[in-house]
Amino acid sequence: MVDKPGAGEPGAPSGTDRSIGELVSDATDNLSRLVRLEIKLAKLEAKADAVKIGKGIGEFLAAGVILHLFVILLSVTIGLGLWEIFDLPLWGAFGIVTLFYLLVAVAFVLTALINFRRRQGLARTAETSSRLVAILRGDIRPPKGERSVVAATTDQAPVSSDSSV
């Protein structure tokens, strides 16, 4: 027997007949809980994506600074190369340093692109939201004897207990 509406498993039979008001209250509580869990899941996924995007932006900024150094060093190299056309040691040294900075910038750009491609979006939120809508429409039945998809996905990621979540 369920002492508090909304505290039992969805679809679980109760030992007594319940009034329509209790059933509506139970359904409202369950729906409210599902919506809160969906919002928490969306926040967790959005935060993870924001961290990945922030890292990618930082890597692009680092690549921009290094590319700026590349242009400066390339200019010095070309200037010294033209000044001393055949005196290779000084020009060669500046050329090697310039190419090194170019390779470092390329490594930052490739790392940033890889991180941006790893971003997944709100995949789990979209999946659980579409299942919730299908259950509410009556297209599919909620799983019986198992934990719900929403509860299973929220157990995978830590959820803050403060009021801002």
Give the termini separation: 32 Å
Strand content: under 5%
Q: How do the SSEs run, as a string of H and E?
A: HHHH
Unreliable stretches: 148-165
Keywords:
165 residues; disordered C terminus; mainly alpha
3D architecture notes:
The protein is mostly helical and 165 residues long. It has helices at 20-83, 88-118, 123-137, 149-156. The longest helix is centred in the N-terminal third of the chain and has 64 residues, at 20-83.
Topology:
Elements: H1 20-83, H2 88-118, H3 123-137, H4 149-156
Helix pairs in contact: 1-2, 1-3, 1-4
Short description:
The protein has 165 residues and is mainly α.
